């Protein structure tokens, strides 16, 4: 079948991005650093989740953040309060981070910390349910958030992110009593697309489910360390 120019261009862009993502991951692997790509629509709770994560895990793990936003450093400034290296990337009109942008963030990190001393880099992607999932950035795991306020149908309407997620956090579950929402239906909809993702209902407001999230994070870091040791 003959491809349209737009389709061919899209394939070429994704191929070039994948090469950059592989290069980024090679850096992380060399340093023994785990990287998560944290994705969601705007307002689902990415930044507050990272705030809770930095507060809980920074005493035990060396963490850094690459923070993607279209125009401001508002979220980056919130995370800098936790005394970890935070690199801000403004994407302008782009609705996602790509591998080249994150490569720039990695080089900035090298100027402010020794990457070999890090355990985990958290990439907070631009708020968007579509584009971020299409462009890998070198991550070892994709973390998606879906707030209960967004509705049960979003995994079916925007499947790519939920198909790709290694971990899905269903956020703001403290609001369930005030909404016509069924968390079990959200889980079923995700399972149609992705039978293997870890699904964790959480509330940053009450703390429900956060300990399970922190444990998942620790397990991923330990797993990569063991894999890196085993490969040498």
From TrEMBL:
Keyword Zinc appears in the UniProt entry: yes
Organismal lineage: Bacteria, Bacillati, Cyanobacteriota, Cyanophyceae, Acaryochloridales
Family: Belongs to the SIMIBI class G3E GTPase family. HypB/HupM subfamily.
Name of protein: Hydrogenase accessory protein HypB
Keywords on record: GTP-binding, Hydrolase, Metal-binding, Nickel, Nucleotide-binding, Zinc
CobW/HypB/UreG nucleotide-binding domain: residues covered: 37-200
Superkingdom of origin: Bacteria
GO molecular function: GTP binding; GTPase activity; nickel cation binding; zinc ion binding
Species the sequence originates in: Acaryochloris marina (strain MBIC 11017)
SUPFAM superfamilies the UniProt entry points to: P-loop containing nucleoside triphosphate hydrolases (SSF52540)
């Amino acid at each position: 079948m003959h491809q349209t120019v737009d389709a061919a261009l899209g394939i070429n862009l994704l191929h070039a991005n994948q090469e950059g993502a592989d290069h980024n991951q090679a850096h992380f692997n060399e340093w023994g650093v785990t990287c998560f790509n944290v994705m969601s629509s705007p307002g689902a709770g990415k930044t507050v989740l990272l705030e809770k994560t930095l507060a809980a895990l920074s005493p035990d793990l060396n963490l850094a953040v690459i923070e993607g936003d279209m125009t401001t450093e508002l979220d980056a400034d919130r995370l800098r309060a936790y005394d970890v290296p935070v690199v801000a990337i403004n994407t302008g009109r782009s609705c996602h981070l790509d591998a080249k942008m994150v490569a720039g963030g990695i080089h900035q990190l090298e100027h402010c910390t020794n990457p070999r001393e890090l355990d985990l880099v958290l990439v907070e992607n631009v708020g968007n349910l579509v584009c971020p999932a299409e462009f890998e950035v070198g991550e070892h795991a994709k973390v998606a958030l879906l707030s209960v306020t967004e509705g049960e149908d979003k995994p079916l309407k925007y499947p790519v992110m939920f198909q790709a997620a290694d971990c899905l956090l269903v956020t703001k579950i403290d609001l369930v009593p005030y909404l016509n929402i069924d968390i079990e239906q959200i889980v079923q909809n995700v399972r149609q697309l992705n039978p293997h993702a870890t699904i964790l209902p959480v509330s940053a407001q009450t703390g429900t489910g956060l300990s399970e999230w922190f444990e998942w994070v620790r397990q991923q870091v330990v797993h990569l360390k063991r894999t890196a040791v085993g490969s040498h």
